Fold:
Amino acid sequence: MKKTSLILFLCMIVCLPAFAQTTVRPVGEPDAARVGIDTAQQHLKDVPVSKFEDASFWKVSMWEDQGFLISRRLVGVPAAKADLDAERLADEELIGIPEGSHVLGVRVDFNKRGINQFYVYPMRPLAIEGICKTLSVWVVGRNFKHVLKIMLSDYSGNYVELTFGKLNFTGWKKLTLAVPPSITQTDYHYTTRNGLKFLGFKIETDLEESFGRYYIYFDDLSAVTDLFLESNLDPDDMQDIW
Structure:
């Protein structure tokens, strides 16, 4: 019995420092050892990149031996956008950005069956402020197996191509992709210049379905981006844009 009591006493002495070092944090208070990991400061915002209201601002191109392209501004709007993008649309209304009532339509007349590709791009690159996390666009794909990609330019001007996915769905659908962290969007030396530039869309056509005529429609390209640096700049900071 004495031997058992002695063993229990020694165990309590060994374990006592561990219990003494344990601290209780109030509920909701971050662990000081993990500050900067779990509590990184961000200011995420869903911002518009283009609403495709001006058809003359958009160009289309394709190899002439593959087919011909035309584009038009058409009246229309995705009905589900009012629900899925309600918060962003409300913010835009507060600052006077019109919702828009038109979409961009593109028609392709294929000359021959093959692995073709065509492009839809703005007259000049469109800047995306902040550190872009996701990109979204509303598309009518007409249930074809063609693949939609987005063309970007990173912080250093390097060409980047990301894939939204296949267009094998009917009606309007909001396609979203995550921007991988491997893409350079900032330089810690310069806090006044961040982000990506949108160069356009690339559509790779499926071999089995690249014949006849094809229609595709675009509306409301947007980005969820971190605007923490932009919203916390010193008002007297210099702009490195000269």
